[in-house]
C-alpha cells in the first residue's frame, strides 16, 4: 500500500532499483572490456565492484566486476542466486562451507572458472600482497530479485542445497566427463583451474575443425561452455535467444552480428577480457584473426542438464542444425559472400594464413583482394 507521498510502482524493475541503491558504478554497452571497467567500494561485498549490463543480456543475467585489493578479502557471502566466476587477473583462493560445516578451499589464478553451490557460505581472498585480483561474476540475480523482491530472502536465507555440492574433488579441479554427442559432451565440476588449457572435444558440425565442451558447474541452472577455433578459421553463424555472455579467453578476433533484414553487420573486436551478449534472435559468427587458437567462454541461464526454459531446450537441440532444416545455423555455402572477404582482409592485417580453403572456394575472394 502506498502513502500519498509515494508514486505507485508502474513498470518497475526491482533489480535495477537494487543496483542503484548499492551505490557502485554501472556500465551499459553492447560489448565491454572487463579489464578496464572502473570499480568503487561496495559495502555489501567488502571489496570494490561494478555492475555490467550488456545490451543483449535479456531478462535474467548480469555481470559483476569484483576487485580485491592486495592481501585483501571479500566479506563472507551467502545468497540465493547462482554465479559463475571467471578470473580476469590475479591469484587467490576461495573458501566454501558445505551444508554440514565442512570447509573446502581452492586456489585460483588467471583464466580460472568456478561456481559455488547455491546459497553456500563463501569468501574470496587475494593471494598477492602487491597486485589486485579481478574477478567477473556472471549471475542470475536479476531473475531472482525480480521474482522475489525481498533482500532478506535472497541474502539472509538459511536454506541449504547439499545435492548441489558435488563430490569433494570437484573443488580440487577434478570432475567427471559425461559423454553425449559432439557439441553436447559435458564436464561436471565446481572448479576449472585454467580454462585456456582445458581439453576440448572436436565438434565438426559447427565448422572448420572447432572444438567444445559443455560444463555442469555446481549442479546449477547456469550454463557455461567453452569453444576453440584453430588458427585461420571461423565458426558457422547461428542465432538464439538473449543472455549468452560471450568472452574471449585466448587469441584475438572479432564477431559479426546481424538480423535478417540488416544491410550491414555489427562488428565486435575481442581480446581477453572483452564480453558481449548477442541480442535475441540476432545471427552472430565468431572469427579467429590471430596466429594462435582462439578460445572463448559463453555463460547463460539454462544448460544441458537443466534447460530451465523451452527456448534453451530448443537451442541445445538445434544449435548445429541448418536453418533450412528447422535449426539455427547458417552453413558456409549459404553465408553472405561479404563474410569471407572480410575475414581474409582481417587475416592480411595480422599475417595469419587462412585454413578455410577446405570448406570454402577461396579463389574468387583472393582474386578480388589482389585486384
Task: Describe the overall structure.
The protein has 371 residues and is of the alpha+beta class. It folds into 2 domains: 21-168, Jelly Rolls; 177-350, Jelly Rolls (Sandwich), CATH 2.60.120.10. Helices cover 14% and strands 33% of the residues. The chain has 6 helices and 25 strands. It has helices at 14-22, 141-148, 151-155, 310-318, 337-350, 363-370, and strands spanning 26-29, 31-33, 40-42, 47-54, 62-68, 83-89, 92-97, 103-108, 113-115, 121-126, 133-139, 176-178, 186-189, 191-192, 201-202, 211-217, 222-229, 237-238, 245-250, 253-258, 266-270, 274-276, 283-288, 294-301, 329-330. Strands 2, 12, 13, 15, 16, 17, 19, 22 and 24 form a 9-stranded mixed beta sheet that branches. Strands 1, 3, 4, 5, 6, 9, 11 and 14 form an 8-stranded mixed beta sheet that branches. A hairpin with a 5-residue loop joins strand 7 (92-97) and strand 8 (103-108). The longest helix has 14 residues, at 337-350. It is globular. The chain starts with 13 loop residues before the first helix and ends with a helix.
Judged by helices, strands and strand pairing, the structural class is alpha+beta
Total number of strands: 25
How large is the count of helical segments?
6
What is the third-level CATH name, the topology of the largest domain?
Jelly Rolls
The value of Rg in angstroms is 21 Å
- CATH superfamily placement of the largest domain: Jelly Rolls
Assigned CATH architecture of the largest domain: Sandwich
Global morphology: globular
Mean pLDDT: 95
Question: Strand portion, in percent?
Answer: 25-35%
Count up the domains.
Answer: 2
Q: What about the largest sheet?
A: 9 strands, mixed
Taking the alpha carbons of the first and last residues, their distance comes to 72 Å
Helix content, binned percent? 10-25%
Main CATH class of the largest domain: Mainly Beta
Q: Uncertain regions: pLDDT < 50 for 5+ in a row?
A: none
